[in-house]
Give the backbone structure.
Amino acid sequence: MGLAASAHGSIDTLKSPSTSTLIVTRRVHFNAAHRLHNPELSDAENRRLFGLCNNANFHGHNYELDVSVEGTIDPTTGYVVDLGVIKRLVEERVTSKLDHRNLNLDVLELAGTIPTTENLAVAIWRMLNGALPGRLKKIVLWETPRNCVEYDGR
Ligand code: NI
């Protein structure tokens, strides 16, 4: 098999993968309603700032959330983390609180904030940071297929 080994020069590095740092990502979905409104401003100013997103009776989004953790490969499993564990923890800590909810009215973690994608991303980071195996590296929150916010805890 000498020919195969020489054709795959990385074979030696695969025997000792634990020094490599990788980022693994789980994507979850939820939908929720919100209204962008700053109660300290006039109705006219809110309409000017937020447009349709200021609609008094709320509107909905289909959010996608990418949760990325960083670590080295466990030689026993070949995984950085078990993504099934990440899935369960993200459901427990995030989607169970946000899915099919009104972000202005139903979510304690967002109380007193304007529920923009930015503020929601910070709230989600706080729900997850320190709770997952591996090191939480980054979250990306997609409000639409074209708009997203990234946050890494800074
Ligand atoms: Ni919106």
